[in-house]
Design a protein that fits this description.
The chain is built from four helices and seven strands. By secondary structure, the protein is of the alpha+beta class. It has a seven-stranded antiparallel beta sheet with strand order 1-2-3-5-6-7-4, covered by helices on one side. The chain starts with a helix and ends with a helix.
């Protein structure tokens, strides 16, 4: 695999996800895969995601984790609800670099009537780079217009 292939290759089983809203759309394409009951949201790290040290910016990785948690919850309930972040805790374990394929492995802890809890790990291959835990307010489902706009 050439350097260019590494920067554009999408691993098997992942499909382009046209969700995440305008903010995430500006960060780049998101991909999704469901595997053994787990939702995996992923994206390729590019130069635009890096800080002055040449590694993926922590805020960018936090945005990916936050979006992946919300999307994972929405997929878990098959779109019957949407979710707004109430609290998000993150721990940075390692770095991601341009060309890395970063996967957010989402684990739903509890989905109640008013509040939902979920965790995820961001991974590059088998290497965990970030741990996130979120609490989300359970909201009404998105409207067809919002869904059409990519929310």
């Amino acid at each position: 695999m050439t350097s260019h292939d590494k920067n554009t290759h999408v691993p098997p089983g992942f499909e382009r996800l046209k969700r995440g809203g305008p903010y995430m759309a500006n960060l780049g394409d998101l991909y999704c895969k469901r595997e053994n009951g787990t939702t995996i949201i992923a994206m390729r790290i590019t130069e635009q995601h890096t800080n002055m040290r040449g590694i993926a910016h922590g805020g960018m990785l936090t945005s990916l984790a936050d979006s992946a948690l919300g999307l994972g919850l929405t997929m878990h309930c098959e779109g019957r609800h949407s979710f707004v972040t109430v609290n998000l805790s993150t721990d940075f374990v390692d770095a991601a670099r341009p060309g890395d394929w970063v996967e957010a492995h989402v684990d739903i802890q509890k989905l109640g009537g008013r509040v939902a809890f979920a965790n995820c790990f961001l991974q590059v291959g088998a290497k965990r780079i970030l741990r996130a835990s979120g609490v989300f307010a359970v909201m009404n489902a998105l409207t067809p217009e919002q869904l059409a706009a990519g929310y």
